[in-house]
């Protein structure tokens, strides 16, 4: 088991620099989720950690040792590739068993570990098949199984559940968490999926175009997004942004927006006249006839347990999560309120949290 | 035919307009000669009457009892097996070496195809000279490293003549294998190797568990192409030894050629070549069946 530390890591492909100055530390036993949009460099960072891609700048430390020039086979890592990278000429059983055979694990032990992995992943009926005879989701589970049977110091997972259906994904989420609770292997897990990040991570690293935007616990990242970008990226329904100006209202700070005046929590950085952008999560705004915000209802979309109300405000669309029993006629004005503690305030210029 | 008619034929659903030319070519150049060959094997040329005479199964009976045929078949098999084995192993080894992206290797890869543009008969002549015991460079070199006694004429010694011919064969055709294998290696996916590195596999393990199985189709094609060609070996033995000394390098093709064109035994020559055709077809089919790749 090991710590992983990135010290001012940079990556260039020829003349193109896609990553610079990545620095963070992953503690022993920690489960870290890398979150970020497509193309921000998540796979590249994992591949550098695995040793499949050279580190252009900086030092990569695993277990306290600099491993920039250590061969992948000597790094004691297991990896689930985004594109699976299964062995096409081996049956599922051998795909999973390969690393154990190479490590000269006794055959009986190999058999029991492969069968355990196959059972956990619902792959038992497919052990005798070749990868090309499997569906995408089944292949992905084989890739997962290949990592699970390993006794590695670090697990690297590159979107390992992206091709599974919702139910299987939920099942696998708990399986992976349980596996981690049992093995306590340091894990770096890449995903696009909010829920995966929120439910599985000890620590979330939000990336943006080759840089780190925020590092924190799931609650930190959700409750105190460091920037407008993070606020936009995290949260299952996309956040409402309202630009405005800081004013003083009843002795406390508030922000005047075209949609209405919103009270915010006091902060020394908030001076009257300051241009800011407010972030209001749809789940935090409540329908309130006496509320300060006003928008015209357009349509309601039922989500199962509740509903999303889409409105048209002066700043464009405004979304709120509402009780699914509530009915709003199209074009009617709806008023909303939000507690000051739930309002995220960002500097209009730098887009950084105030 | 008017343009409209041509157009109608070209877009019709019938396969015949497209198949007919090919069928015609096949019929004239393959099927007819084959049937004629079968027919010929039941006849024999009679020089006195300058005509063919029906002899029934006489040619086939003769073949069965012909020690020289069985000897030639043995030589052919030996030649085939040794050449194929060495060309595959050497070809694979060189292909693996040349697959690296090192400076200068692109030129080496280009140079490889050069042996293939030399006509085999000419290559045979070159080696005939190089293996000469008086002034041959190859004989001299082999003598220097102690592999060959300086006074021994390689191609005129029964125990060495086949080796002498095989050297020319292997020199000329190993690059062919290298080219096929290199094309195969270049088309292999990189991901399984990355996964294998992470799984801790050594280069040898990767070669055995990934490269060889992934290359099996390519290897099968190479074996088939080269194997069929090897079985009808003619040029090198004809030019270098004419089958000698004695019958040490007599192959089936050479024997059939001799019977047909030197002794004018057309029927027996046809029987011999038909037999080697049947052997090649049977072997090729067994091979295709055995080598069937499932992954
Ligand atoms: N071999 C390469 N040569 C040049 N550019 C590359 C190479 N590999 C990746 N890139 C670039 O690096 C950036 C990051 O790629 P990467 O695959 O790490 O993204 P990602 O965050 O994993 O995206 P996704 O979520 O879509 O998988 C992309 O802009 C990509 O175009
Ligand atoms: Mg990726």
Automatic annotation (TrEMBL), chain A:
<comment type="similarity">
    <text>Belongs to the ABC transporter superfamily.</text>
</comment>
<dbReference type="InterPro" id="IPR017871">
    <property type="entry name" value="ABC_transporter-like_CS"/>
</dbReference>
<dbReference type="GO" id="GO:0008643">
    <property type="term" value="P:carbohydrate transport"/>
</dbReference>
<protein>
    <submittedName>
        <fullName>ABC transporter ATP-binding protein</fullName>
    </submittedName>
</protein>
<dbReference type="GO" id="GO:0005524">
    <property type="term" value="F:ATP binding"/>
</dbReference>
<keyword id="KW-0067">ATP-binding</keyword>
<dbReference type="GO" id="GO:0055052">
    <property type="term" value="C:ATP-binding cassette (ABC) transporter complex, substrate-binding subunit-containing"/>
</dbReference>
<dbReference type="GO" id="GO:0140359">
    <property type="term" value="F:ABC-type transporter activity"/>
</dbReference>
<dbReference type="InterPro" id="IPR015855">
    <property type="entry name" value="ABC_transpr_MalK-like"/>
</dbReference>
<dbReference type="InterPro" id="IPR008995">
    <property type="entry name" value="Mo/tungstate-bd_C_term_dom"/>
</dbReference>
<dbReference type="InterPro" id="IPR013611">
    <property type="entry name" value="Transp-assoc_OB_typ2"/>
</dbReference>
<dbReference type="InterPro" id="IPR003439">
    <property type="entry name" value="ABC_transporter-like_ATP-bd"/>
</dbReference>
<dbReference type="InterPro" id="IPR003593">
    <property type="entry name" value="AAA+_ATPase"/>
</dbReference>
<keyword id="KW-0813">Transport</keyword>
<dbReference type="InterPro" id="IPR047641">
    <property type="entry name" value="ABC_transpr_MalK/UgpC-like"/>
</dbReference>
<feature type="domain" description="ABC transporter">
    <location>
        <begin position="4"/>
        <end position="234"/>
    </location>
</feature>
<dbReference type="InterPro" id="IPR012340">
    <property type="entry name" value="NA-bd_OB-fold"/>
</dbReference>
<dbReference type="GO" id="GO:0016887">
    <property type="term" value="F:ATP hydrolysis activity"/>
</dbReference>
<dbReference type="Pfam" id="PF08402">
    <property type="entry name" value="TOBE_2"/>
</dbReference>
<keyword id="KW-0547">Nucleotide-binding</keyword>
<dbReference type="InterPro" id="IPR027417">
    <property type="entry name" value="P-loop_NTPase"/>
</dbReference>
<dbReference type="Pfam" id="PF00005">
    <property type="entry name" value="ABC_tran"/>
</dbReference>
Automatic annotation (TrEMBL), chain B:
<dbReference type="Pfam" id="PF00528">
    <property type="entry name" value="BPD_transp_1"/>
</dbReference>
<protein>
    <submittedName>
        <fullName>ABC transporter permease</fullName>
    </submittedName>
</protein>
<feature type="domain" description="ABC transmembrane type-1">
    <location>
        <begin position="73"/>
        <end position="287"/>
    </location>
</feature>
<dbReference type="GO" id="GO:0055085">
    <property type="term" value="P:transmembrane transport"/>
</dbReference>
<keyword id="KW-0472">Membrane</keyword>
<dbReference type="InterPro" id="IPR000515">
    <property type="entry name" value="MetI-like"/>
</dbReference>
<keyword id="KW-0813">Transport</keyword>
<feature type="transmembrane region" description="Helical">
    <location>
        <begin position="16"/>
        <end position="35"/>
    </location>
</feature>
<feature type="transmembrane region" description="Helical">
    <location>
        <begin position="69"/>
        <end position="98"/>
    </location>
</feature>
<dbReference type="GO" id="GO:0005886">
    <property type="term" value="C:plasma membrane"/>
</dbReference>
<keyword id="KW-0812">Transmembrane</keyword>
<comment type="similarity">
    <text>Belongs to the binding-protein-dependent transport system permease family.</text>
</comment>
<keyword id="KW-1133">Transmembrane helix</keyword>
<feature type="transmembrane region" description="Helical">
    <location>
        <begin position="237"/>
        <end position="257"/>
    </location>
</feature>
<feature type="transmembrane region" description="Helical">
    <location>
        <begin position="159"/>
        <end position="186"/>
    </location>
</feature>
<feature type="transmembrane region" description="Helical">
    <location>
        <begin position="263"/>
        <end position="288"/>
    </location>
</feature>
<keyword id="KW-1003">Cell membrane</keyword>
<feature type="transmembrane region" description="Helical">
    <location>
        <begin position="110"/>
        <end position="129"/>
    </location>
</feature>
<dbReference type="InterPro" id="IPR035906">
    <property type="entry name" value="MetI-like_sf"/>
</dbReference>
């Amino acid at each position: 088991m090991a710590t992983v530390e990135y010290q001012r890591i940079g990556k260039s492909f020829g003349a193109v620099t896609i990553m610079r100055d990545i620095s963070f530390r992953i503690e022993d036993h920690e489960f870290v989720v890398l979150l970020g949009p497509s193309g921000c460099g998540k796979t590249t960072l994992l591949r550098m950690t695995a040793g499949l891609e050279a580190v252009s700048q900086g030092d990569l430390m695993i277990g306290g040792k600099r491993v920039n020039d250590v061969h992948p086979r000597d790094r004691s890592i297991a990896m689930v590739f985004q594109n699976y990278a299964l062995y096409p000429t081996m049956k599922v059983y051998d795909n999973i068993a390969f690393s154990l055979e190479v490590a000269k694990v006794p055959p009986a032990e190999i058999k029991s570990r492969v069968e355990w992995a196959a059972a956990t992943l619902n792959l038992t009926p497919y052990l005798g098949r070749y990868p090309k005879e499997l569906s995408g989701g089944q292949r992905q589970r084989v890739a997962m199984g290949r990592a699970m049977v390993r006794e590695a110091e670090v697990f690297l997972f590159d979107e390992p559940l992206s091709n599974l259906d919702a139910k299987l994904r939920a099942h696998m989420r708990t399986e992976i968490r349980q596996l981690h609770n049992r093995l306590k292997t340091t894990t770096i897990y890449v995903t696009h999926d909010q829920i995966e990040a929120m439910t599985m991570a000890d620590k979330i690293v939000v990336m943006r175009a080759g840089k780190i935007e925020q590092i924190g616990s799931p609650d930190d990242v959700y409750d105190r997004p460091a920037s407008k970008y993070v606020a936009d990226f995290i949260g299952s329904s996309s956040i409402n942004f309202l630009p405005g100006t800081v004013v003083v209202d009843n002795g406390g700070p508030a922000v005047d927006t075209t949609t209405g005046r919103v009270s915010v929590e006091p902060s020394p950085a908030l001076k009257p006249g300051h241009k800011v952008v407010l972030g209001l999560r749809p789940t935090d705004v409540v329908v309130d006839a006496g509320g300060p915000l006003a928008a015209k209802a357009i349509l309601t979309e039922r989500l199962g347990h509740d509903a999303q109300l889409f409105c048209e405000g002066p700043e464009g669309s405004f979304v709120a999560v509402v009780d699914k029993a509530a009915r709003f006629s199209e074009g009617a004005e709806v008023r909303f309120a939000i507690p000051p503690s739930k309002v995220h305030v960002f500097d209009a210029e730098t887009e950084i949290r105030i | 035919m008017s343009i409209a008619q041509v157009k109608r034929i070209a877009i019709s659903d019938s396969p015949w307009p497209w198949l007919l030319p090919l069928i015609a070519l096949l019929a004239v150049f393959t099927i007819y000669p084959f049937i004629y060959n079968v027919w010929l094997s039941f006849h024999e040329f009679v020089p006195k009457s300058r005509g063919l005479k029906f002899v029934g199964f006489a040619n086939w009976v003769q073949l069965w009892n012909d020690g020289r045929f069985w000897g030639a078949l043995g030589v052919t098999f030996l030649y085939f097996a040794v050449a194929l084995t060495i060309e595959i192993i050497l070809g694979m080894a060189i292909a693996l070496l040349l697959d690296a992206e090192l400076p200068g290797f692109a030129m080496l890869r280009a140079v490889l195809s050069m042996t293939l543009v030399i006509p085999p008969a000419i290559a045979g002549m070159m080696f005939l000279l190089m293996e000469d015991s008086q002034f041959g460079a190859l004989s001299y070199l082999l003598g220097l490293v102690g592999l060959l006694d300086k006074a021994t004429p390689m191609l005129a010694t029964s125990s060495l003549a086949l080796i002498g011919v095989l050297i020319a064969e292997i020199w000329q055709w190993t690059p062919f294998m290298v080219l096929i294998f290199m094309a195969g290696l270049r088309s292999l996916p990189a991901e399984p190797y990355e996964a294998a590195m992470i799984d801790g596999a050594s280069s040898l393990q990767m070669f055995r568990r990934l490269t060889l199985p992934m290359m099996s189709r390519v290897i099968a094609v190479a074996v088939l192409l080269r194997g069929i060609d090897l079985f009808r070996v003619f040029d090198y033995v004809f030019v270098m030894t004419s089958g000698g000394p004695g019958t040490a390098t007599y192959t089936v093709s050479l024997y059939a050629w001799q019977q047909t064109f030197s002794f004018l035994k057309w029927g027996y020559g046809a029987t011999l070549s038909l037999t080697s055709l049947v052997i090649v077809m049977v072997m090729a089919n067994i091979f295709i069946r055995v080598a069937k790749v499932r992954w």
